[in-house]
Specification:
Elements: H1 9-16, H2 21-28, H3 32-37, E1 44-45, E2 48-49, H4 51-61, H5 69-86, H6 90-104, H7 106-125, H8 135-156, E3 160-164, E4 170-172, E5 175-177, E6 186-191, H9 194-215
Parallel strand pairs: 3-6
Antiparallel strand pairs: 1-2, 4-5
Helix pairs in contact: 6-7
Length: about 220
């Protein structure tokens, strides 16, 4: 009669601490290809899997992570944005998500998050690439905005100036001045001053006279 083999607790533990990929697939109800693709999530010892670590990993797959405040704060704003721009009525949205949670539990809500991520990725592909402005660009934008507001204020308070596009002097009543413009004033238009206009007329007259002599 064959001698009965006794399996000790230590033997069972040793087996559970050294599972094959096929064993793990059977244990968690996934195909071996899935386990192979997810190998980065599991700790292995000489290619073998520890059942305790596999169970811990699979448990974490369906348990909400505790986000640090540095991640939780922007996530709160993301949720606000989604709620503000994507949800027309909140009660039907809550009922839909609660129904998914009742039927599928945490994996169902995870599926919603995965789908949301897919949609955001699709939108991001067509979005122009953005970058943070440099300090110099921020200063330039601020100065441009200050100039814009100053121009608006100058228009509204009649502190407007026009400048000559030729000599760059600005009109000051009956004459044109050179140098810096007075404080609180803004240049709002460009014209040709009478002096520059006269110079242009004389040049045109000389050109016409020279052309007439050539034709003769």
């Amino acid at each position: 009669m064959a001698k009965k083999t006794t399996t000790t607790e230590s033997d069972s533990r040793a087996v559970l601490e050294s599972l094959s990929q096929t064993d793990v697939a059977w244990l968690i109800g996934k195909p071996s290809s899935w386990v192979r693709d997810q190998n980065h999530k599991f700790e292995r010892n000489n290619g073998r899997y520890d059942a305790r670590q596999v169970v811990a990993v699979m448990g974490s797959e369906f348990t909400a992570a505790t986000l640090g405040d540095d991640l939780l704060e922007p996530v709160c704003h993301l949720c606000d944005d989604v709620a503000d721009f994507a949800v027309c009525r909140f009660r039907p949205a809550v009922e839909l998500l609660e129904g998914i949670e009742r039927r599928h539990g945490a994996p169902g809500l995870a599926a919603v998050a995965v789908r949301l991520l897919e949609v955001l990725r699709e939108r991001a592909e067509s979005e122009p690439e953005t970058r943070h402005p440099t300090e110099q660009e921020i200063r330039e934008r601020a100065e441009a905005e200050i100039d814009r507001l100053a121009t608006i204020d100058a228009r509204q308070t009649y502190k407007r100036l026009v400048t000559c596009g030729k000599c760059h002097r600005y009109r000051w009543g009956s004459k044109f001045r050179s140098g810096p413009i007075p404080n609180g004033y803004a240049i709002v238009d460009e014209i040709t001053c009478p002096e520059c206009e006269s110079k242009q007329s004389r040049r045109r007259s000389r050109s016409m006279a020279s052309l007439s002599e050539t034709e003769e």
